[in-house]
Amino acid sequence: MKSANKPEFNVEFYQLSPDYSDYMSPNFDIDEVEDKRGDDDFVIDTRPIKYADDWVPLEIQFSIDDAVPAIPTLSKWRNYLVLHESAYQALERVLGPFGEFLPCTHQGTKFYLFNPLTIAEDLSAVVPGSVSKNGNLLSGIEFDKDKMKGVPVFRSKESYITIYCTDAFKDVVEAEKLDGLLFSTNLTHY
Predict the structure, then answer these.
(1) What is the predicted pLDDT for the residue at 38?
(2) To which H or E segment does residue 54 belong?
(3) Average pLDDT for residues 99-104, to the nearest whole number?
(4) What pTM was estimated for this model as a whole?
(5) Are 101 and 114 in contact (CB under 8 A)?
(6) Distances in whole angstroms, Cα of residue 167 to Cα of each of 144, 157, 179, 188
(7) Residue 6, domain member (yes or no)
(8) What's the rounded Cα separation, in Å, for the pair 125 and 146?
(9) Does residue 172 form part of some domain?
(10) DSSP state of 144
(11) Taking 90 as the threshold, does the pLDDT of residue 124 lie above it?
(12) Segment (H or E) for 37
């Protein structure tokens, strides 16, 4: 029974994925990454590593693949969110405490990679016994709603490349009409 004095707090979780059917796909030229950074670690290593201290802005590319030629305001590339300047302006305060923004450009337009550095296990927010795998693929995971209250985006050690979010992040994205991301309540790999 609900308490009359205490509002019920409900948190929903989503897995983020890029909308490749309606928007172009972000990516980077590996040769440019190696030339500017001296390595390609941020492309290959998906563990939560801070890059801001020695970051050199990179040129982001967008490929059409099977999509219409539209650049998203907000997308995902590997274990990073890709934000157009307008998405950065809308989300900087929401996301800032939970990771780092890495500046990029696309044909003179400002973009940012958001590197989520908040890990569910560091907050003891993975429900014990909820993780199951089929080989290397995550087939089950649950997060503790109380421990994730106030966290807009995060990752898990079970799959560093996967970015999860709460409905608080989804609500801001929808209110600001940022396009290019899909929100799935399926938190696993299949």
Answers:
(1) 82
(2) none
(3) 97
(4) 0.90
(5) yes
(6) 14, 21, 16, 17
(7) no
(8) 8
(9) yes
(10) -
(11) yes
(12) helix 30-37
Element (H, E) at 190: none
- Domain range for 131 is 13-184
CA distances to 1, 2, 12, 149 from 6, rounded to whole Å, are: 11, 8, 19, 15
- Asked whether residue 64 is domain-assigned, the answer is yes
Average pLDDT over residues 54-76: 88
* Chain centre to alpha carbon of residue 181: 9
Residues in the chain: 190
Provide the residue type at 111 as one letter. F
Are the beta carbons of 164 and 155 closer than 8 angstroms?
yes
Q: Which helix (H) or strand (E) holds 181?
A: strand 181-184
In order of 6, 9, 22, 167, the CA distances from 2 in angstroms are 8, 11, 42, 21
Cβ neighbours for 71, distance < 8 A, ≥ 6 positions apart: 23, 24, 62, 84, 106
Closest C-alpha to 27, from 108, 106, 92, 114: 106
Q: What are phi and psi of 145, to 5 degrees?
A: -65, -40
Residue 6 has pLDDT above 50, yes or no: no
Residue 103 placed within a domain: yes
CB 112 within 8 A of CB 88: yes
Question: What is the number of domains present in the chain?
Answer: 1
Residue 55: how many other CB atoms lie within 10 Å: 18
Q: Name the one residue in this structure whose structure tokens are 């290959």.
A: 44
Residue with token string 């996301």: 95
- CA–centroid distance for 84 within its chain: 14
Closest among 145, 143, 148 to 129, alpha carbons compared: 143
